[in-house]
Write a structure and sequence with these properties.
Organism: Neisseria meningitidis serogroup B (strain ATCC BAA-335 / MC58)
Largest sheet: 5 strands, mixed
GO molecular function: metal ion binding; metallopeptidase activity
Keywords: Hydrolase, Metal-binding, Metalloprotease, Protease, Zinc
Oligomer: single chain
CATH architecture of the largest domain: 3-Layer(aba) Sandwich
CATH topology of the largest domain: Cytidine Deaminase, domain 2
Order of helices and strands: HHHHHHHEEHEHEE
Strand content: 15-25%
Structural class: alpha+beta
Protein name: UPF0758 protein NMB1038
Strand order of the largest sheet: 2-1-3-4-5
Shape: elongated
InterPro entries: MPN, RadC_JAB, RuvA_2-like, UPF0758, UPF0758_N
Radius of gyration: 21 Å
CATH superfamily of the largest domain: Cytidine Deaminase, domain 2
CATH class of the largest domain: Alpha Beta
């Protein structure tokens, strides 16, 4: 049965207009984005199938074009739509973070980092540079690569903070393997960085570890020096 044959109150677009986007399931939201299904499969059916295949909305929206194209009805057009949605979401979160007082709004920081880093396939490290009011000045990528390649030089982070006239900073990196638990190397690096930053009167406020499902804060774990 096509969506046009559904009762009007159950059609995703009509349901959104009547009840708001929050009332829709992941599959219904995705169906609106897909617009059409395939032969014998409505847009909602296709959305449910894709969500089951990829395991989550985040993994589906972050899939590479080659992987998407393996599924009937998907291809470069869908990849482009998903990339646009991801980037719009990232920019909205960045705007909210820019306007917020970071320490009083840790959930916004966590949401931004999960959206920014959670679906990365390799380890990526970033720095969030803050002013005296703990508002965001800039986000800078520090490194990108495998764990073996992902050596961050402390002096480069110190120089970055000074170049941006930051009063404090937050660092974050993702664990592509899925576990947010800090390693001993993560803990030791954080201690050395905090010590180095203190020499130039810049505070290291927190270190976050990000996965697709969760965000771990060193400060909340009591691991900040």
């Amino acid at each position: 049965m096509s969506i046009k044959q559904w009762p009007e109150g159950e059609r995703p677009r009509e349901k959104l207009l009547e009840r708001g986007a929050a009332a829709l399931s992941d599959a219904e939201l995705l169906a609106i984005l897909l617009r059409v299904g395939t032969r014998g499969m409505s847009a909602v059916d296709l959305a449910r199938y894709l969500l089951q295949e990829f395991g989550s909305l985040g993994r589906l929206m972050s899939a590479e074009v080659g992987k998407l194209s393996a599924y009937k009805g998907m291809g470069t057009a869908s990849f482009t739509q998903f990339a646009v949605v991801r980037e719009i979401g990232r920019r909205i979160l960045a705007e909210e973070l820019q306007e917020s007082i970071v320490l009083s709004d840790p959930d916004t920081v966590a949401d931004y980092l999960r959206f920014h880093l959670g679906q990365e396939k390799v380890e990526v490290s970033v720095a969030l540079l803050l002013n005296r009011q703990n508002q965001l000045i800039a986000v800078r990528e520090l490194s990108r690569g495998t764990v073996a390649e992902n050596t961050i030089y402390i002096r480069e982070i110190v120089k970055l903070a000074l170049d941006e006239y930051a009063d404090s900073l937050i660092i974050a990196h993702n664990h592509p393997g899925g576990s947010p638990e800090p390693s001993q190397e993560d803990i030791m690096f954080t201690r050395r960085l905090a010590q180095a930053m203190s020499l130039v009167d810049v505070s290291l406020l927190d270190h976050f570890i990000v996965t697709s499902q969760s965000v771990c804060s060193f400060r909340q774990l009591g691991l900040m020096p």
